[in-house]
Amino acid sequence: MPEGHVPTAGEAIIDREGLQALLDALGARGFSVIGPRIRDEAIVYAPLRNVADLPEGWTDRQDGGRYRLERRGDRALFGYAVGPHSWKQFLFPPRQRLWQARRTEAGFDLLEEPPPSERWAFLGIRACELHALAIQDRVFLGGSHPDRSYAERRRDLFLVALQCGEPSGTCFCVSMETGPKASSGFDLALTELLGDGSHRFLVEVGSRAGEEILAAIPHRSAGEADRREAEAVLDSTASRMGRTLDTRGIRELLQDHPEHPRWEEVATRCLACANCTMVCPTCFCSTVEDHTALTGESAERTRLWDSCFSLDFSYLHGGSVRKEIRSRYRQWITHKLSTWFDQFGSSGCVGCGRCITWCPVGIDITEEVRAIRSSLLEPTHA
């Protein structure tokens, strides 16, 4: 795992060839590099080996319930925001066999799933996603019973962060204080620079492992002009957030108004499809399924992603606790923005905006909070 920021002689600069050298150096050290690629008309995270695999010259346009890829006017490799995938799919897979049992003459042998053989390097993980990863770490590694599968996948992870240069129409990381700049939690961090007619990347080192990788690839020391350009990229990103969320007193705002009429209003639009929880980089709910062969010779247990929007999620003997969509939406947003503080000491939202973009009817978490807050500030009339 990345250490805290490691002081160096200064940031470095690499060009496109240096970026390919970075991929080659990671591959030579046994890492499978995962990064952004275009697939199914979206930018997703998938294995890559060459700079040519990156979404060169593409960007995305996002709004409530809308996502479209468009061509840029330059050759940016990371000129997009975030797509439908989050990095949690690799550390907390959507479907995972936990164990299987096979009948023998002496009874049953329990065969636990072996740890993954791959060592991953994530290329292009943004500040909001680093914060999401830290939240998942607290969920799966905190307490007295850490999740062994998550720990095994997380242990040797190498993180190449991307200082965000392109927000979407649904981003609000500035409001959540999770971006656009990553200041820790990475091995290396890149800022893509396209000014002065050159294409280069400012590289920051965040760990000893990152320092070793940087030393193995062609680079030069960053100059003051490079640093100013990188700062300008981040300032521009922060000024172009598509959404804002007022977080003042939000914990109490949601906890103290469980019967607010807004819950009923949003229920008339919500499809309870669970898209928001599937694309969320911090949601961690799961269920298990047991399957036994008809012959009785084998059985297995599988863990799958689940959602509080599912009717069966809160099922107890006699029926579901949350039968109405109103109560399920309230549970999700109140947990995410309020009671998460009680469990994990932070908000469960990092402001990536995925839940807004990928909601089929464009329900906006920032607007729902704003509606509740504004209604409580309206003067009452006798």
From TrEMBL:
**SUPFAM superfamilies given for it?**
alpha-helical ferredoxin
Alphabetical UniProt keywords = Iron, Iron-sulfur, Metal-binding, Oxidoreductase
Question: Which Pfam families would you find in this protein's record?
Answer: Fer4_22
Q: Which GO terms describe its molecular function?
A: iron-sulfur cluster binding; metal ion binding; sulfur reductase activity
Domain (4Fe-4S ferredoxin-type) spans 259-291, 340-368
- Stored InterPro entries: 4Fe4S_Fe-S-bd, 4Fe4S_Fe_S_CS, Helical_ferredxn
Q: What is its EC number?
A: 1.12.98.4
Q: Which domain of life is it from?
A: Bacteria
Q: Which PANTHER family did the record assign?
A: ANAEROBIC SULFITE REDUCTASE SUBUNIT A (PTHR40447:SF1)
Q: What is this protein called?
A: Sulfhydrogenase subunit beta (Sulfur reductase)
This chain's source organism reads Methylacidimicrobium tartarophylax
Lineage here is: Bacteria, Pseudomonadati, Verrucomicrobiota, Methylacidimicrobium
